[in-house]
Amino acid sequence: MAKRVKKTVVTGITREQAEQAFADYAAADAEVQTINAKMDVEITKIRTKYASRLADLDAVKEDTFTMIQAYATENREELFAKKKSIESAHGTFGFRVGMPRLKTLRGFTWAAVLTLCRELLPEYIRTTEDVAKDKLLADRANEEIAPILPRIGVQVVQDETFFIEPKKESDNEPRHSTAS
């Protein structure tokens, strides 16, 4: 099991130390942005370089898949009498059984199935209840609702998170004024 690294709490920081730390943070953030931008450009070039060949190969795979599937379907009884898959010189192909699922019979819709199931198999009908949190939040200032919230065991809270937004290069450039 991996051990968690305990974060040390730093205290007694002066304004100058905080400003220097912020400068270091902003410089690191700017370099990260620059490196990510360079990586994106290089990745885009690589994708462009190989896009045509990849498209050609995908077309070949799609066409040959269709051919192999047609062969397997046409010769299904002969090839797959005992096994669901066939070993070939280049790999294995065959038919896989999917997960069981329900499908409506011809002429039935899920709404009709629900109605009939209510009547014939009521234990297979789900009824889900859940708190309408969005409505409670919207009505939290309502004089009738607000006093009841603690009685039902809830309170409205807003978490506060610390953030840092370093200024970008363009933010630090001096503004040219037209006044002389």
TrEMBL record:
Pfam families assigned to the protein according to its UniProt record, in alphabetical order: Phage_Mu_Gam
GO biological process: DNA protection
InterPro entries: Host-nuc_inhib_Gam (IPR009951)
GO MF term list: double-stranded DNA binding
Protein name per Swiss-Prot or TrEMBL: Mu Gam family protein
